[in-house]
Write a structure and sequence with these properties.
The chain has 6 domains: about 5-135, 3-Layer(bba) Sandwich (FAD/NAD(P)-binding domain); about 140-200, 3-Layer(bba) Sandwich (FAD/NAD(P)-binding domain), CATH 3.50.50.60; about 210-335, FAD/NAD-linked reductase, C-terminal dimerisation domain (Enolase-like, domain 1, 2-Layer Sandwich), CATH 3.30.390; about 380-435, no CATH class; about 440-520, Alpha-Beta Complex (Sulfite Reductase Hemoprotein, domain 2); about 520-685, Sulfite Reductase Hemoprotein, domain 1 (2-Layer Sandwich). It contains 22 helices and 30 strands. The strands form 9 sheets. Strands 2-9-3-4-5 form a 5-stranded parallel β-sheet, covered by helices on one side. The two termini are about 50 Å apart.
């Protein structure tokens, strides 16, 4: 039996031998990439397939500036149609992964180490590392040496027999009917046929594999199975712009031959089963786009998993069938986690987890309680991770927390979350791990669609001076800033700034007396105000002055999410304070406090919290409220959702006396820093 596997294909480019050129194949490749985190800055990933995009995502999470290079005009073109590929590209660009498509690499440039790439059109791309993910080469050297028939792979027949009748072969080293499979699921089918043939217990033949793929990137749901690029096929397509989902089905001779799902892969296994079984879809054509919602009257009331046969594969990564799950439950595995440990089901890419849970619930007769975990790297909930960090007495690193809680891997969800919990628990004693922070927070600026950045100086209460405006205008002219915009938060946004200009502009803005407005961070954004008693005939209090004091009190403190405030000088509410995270309505007698409002995808009016007579009481309460939110809020949880989770009564009970308010307020860290003075990306360039 030959199972010699494959090796990664390295493009035969000039410079491929330079240090920094790696494949994405084994643990040694990954360890090298991890060792370069913090040393190298830019990475080029050649290859826009499944593994190439997963490599790009992992490198992006390590803090690299990643550019994915492909010679086609869309990504994952072997699995996705062009429209779905463009949707996926947009989602990945939002994660700060860049793309250079329709580009053919001609050479790798550098002396001892990679410095740049050159393309056939004459353009170049600076990079510190090149990761090639452009396919595999079957390892057939031994087969050639012993005289077996090979053709870019060991040739086998439908019994997995080679040209020598006493030698069989399976896996990525073979070519069967002109195809080499680089996925694990076909290997299980090949091995089963081979074992049965060798043991003479069956005459099953291997006729090839129908394969499905699922992209393993947190927050990106993509499924593909079968064919999708035959121009003669009938196409059924649906798209939901609000949910950013797309479904494309290919039909040939009243049979489903291909399915591409973007944004929601719930029906993936249902469609894959129809493809594998070559089911006639005539009777279900009208409802096919809606998934498994009642194929016929005879099966009315039966769930999709109930109709599955025992030999239907559920987990392609490990080769687990529905029957395997049934056997596991019958042998005493009475929890989903126990079944996973027993069978290995849903422990790989996670694409089958939803169906596996449905089968487990159906077979065990128990209502499965699905635990919402922080991410796919851990079995712990967000609250459990947060409470673990809150119970720590000494500072730990992110990796130490992951190790203690037995995380199985890392991702862009758990890294920033743990980083935030540690920073809010230990404040200045904890040193932020920049590699685990969102890209915009690492850059202290907001990355735009075209790869440039925007920066927003702080303007407390929307106030500025002629001198500040003059300085900003001169800086904008000097650096040829293409767009200058007044924001909804009463600040000025400078847009279209190349990365290499950020530090010099920060220096000049800071020299003009302005600081970072934290428009990029999970922190205090603005405190919007009206002009109040200084100018308005209707004003009852100094709303501008209070707004400045409120920003001063909580500026620069990182929070679970962005935090917006407002102060209106009278009940006419010109500053829209009642749709902010924390709002103040001024009256003749004092200040009404309103909390947990929102005005975004969802609009919600604030809840009236309490009333204070003095500005000092307002500031003290604001600091206490912010510290409570920083301590007990989940990462990426806006104040609105925090209040909906714990309730206004709970918040008020934690802050119902002057002593409690003082204790929470005093716990808010006092040290603040202007990142535009403490950060210099030129040092790492």
């Amino acid at each position: 039996m030959l199972c010699t596997g494959s090796t990664p294909f390295i493009l035969p480019l000039p410079g491929k031998e330079l240090k920094g050129v790696v494949s994405f194949r084994d643990i040694y490749d990954v360890e090298y990439m991890q060792s370069e985190a913090g040393k190298s800055k830019k990475v080029a990933v050649i290859g826009t397939g499944l593994l190439g995009l997963e490599a790009a995502n992992g490198l992006n999470e390590l803090g690299f500036k990643v550019t994915v290079i492909g010679n086609m005009d869309s990504i994952m073109n072997m699995q996705l149609d062009a429209s779905s590929g463009h949707l996926l590209q947009k989602v990945l660009e939002q994660k700060n992964i860049s793309f250079k498509l329709g580009a053919i690499t001609s050479k790798i440039i550098g002396k001892d180490k990679v410095a740049s790439l050159e393309f056939e059109d004459g353009t170049t791309l600076e990079t510190d590392m090149v990761v090639m993910s452009v396919g595999i080469v079957p390892n057939d050297a031994l087969a050639k040496k012993i005289g077996l028939h090979t053709d870019r792979g060991i040739i086998v027949n439908d019994t997995m027999m080679t040209s020598d009748p006493v030698i069989y072969s399976v896996g990525e080293c073979i070519k069967h009917r002109g195809t080499t499979y680089g996925l694990v699921a076909p290997l299980f089918e090949q091995a089963r046929v081979c074992a049965e043939q060798v043991c003479e217990i069956s005459h099953h033949m291997y006729t090839g594999s129908d394969i499905s793929t699922k992209l393993k990137i947190s927050g990106v749901d993509v499924f593909s199975a079968g064919e999708f690029d035959n121009d003669e096929d009938e196409i059924m397509c649906s798209k939901d712009h609000a949910l950013n989902t797309r479904k494309r089905l290919s039909i040939r001779n009243n049979k489903l031959v291909g399915a591409v799902l973007f944004g929601d892969s719930t029906d993936g296994l249902f469609y894959f089963d129809l493809i594998k079984k070559e089911t006639d879809i005539t009777d279900i054509r009208k409802t096919l786009l809606f998934g498994d919602i009642g194929i016929d009257e005879s099966s009315a009331g039966a769930s999709g998993v109930e109709k599955m046969t025992d030999d239907e594969q559920v987990c392609g990564c490990v080769g687990v069938t529905k029957g395997d799950i049934i056997t596991s439950v019958a042998n005493g595995c009475n929890t989903f986690e126990a079944m996973q440990a027993d069978t290995g089901c849903a422990t790989g890419c996670g694409g089958c987890e939803s169906v596996a849970k449905q089968i487990f619930s159906f077979v065990s007769g128990a209502e499965l309680v699905i635990k919402e975990t922080l991410c796919g790297c851990s079995s712990h909930s967000t609250a459990e991770v947060r409470e673990y960090v809150r119970a720590l007495n000494t500072v730990k690193t992110i990796d130490e927390v992951r190790c203690a809680l037995e995380f199985t891997s890392t991702c862009e969800t758990c890294g920033p979350a743990i980083n935030y919990y540690l920073s809010s628990q230990f404040n200045d004693a904890y040193v932020h791990n920049d590699a685990e922070r969102p890209h915009n927070e690492r850059m202290h600026a907001n990355k735009q669609r075209d790869g440039t950045y925007s920066i927003v100086p702080q303007m407390q209460g929307g106030l500025t001076t002629p001198a500040e405006l003059k300085s900003l205008a001169e800086i904008a002219v000097k650096y040829e800033v293409p767009t200058v915009k007044v924001t909804g938060g009463q600040r000025i946004d400078l847009l279209g700034i190349p990365e290499e200009n950020l530090n010099d502009m920060w220096d000049e803005i800071a020299a003009a007396g302005m600081e970072s407005g934290y428009a990029y961070g999970k922190a205090t954004r603005t405190c919007k105000s009206c002009v109040g008693t200084d100018h308005c005939m209707m004003g009852t209090q100094d709303s501008m002055g209070l707004s400045v004091k409120m920003e001063d009190a909580v500026w620069s403190h990182f929070m679970p999410h962005k935090f917006k405030m407002g102060v209106s000088g009278c009940p006419r509410n010109c500053a829209e304070a009642t749709i902010k995270d924390f709002g103040v309505i001024c009256t003749e007698k004092g200040y009404e406090i309103h909390v947990a409002g929102a005005c975004g995808i969802r609009t919600k009016a604030c809840l009236k919290d309490r009333f204070f007579e003095t500005e000092e009481e307002v500031i003290e309460y604001l600091k206490a409220f912010v510290q409570l939110y920083r301590t007990e809020g989940n990462y990426l949880e806006r104040v609105m959702h925090f209040e909906e989770r714990v309730g206004l009564d709970y918040i008020q009970s934690k802050l119902d006396t002057a002593e409690k308010i003082k204790q929470w307020a005093n716990a808010l860290p006092k040290t603040i820093a202007n990142p535009w003075k403490t950060t210099d990306h030129r040092k790492s360039a």
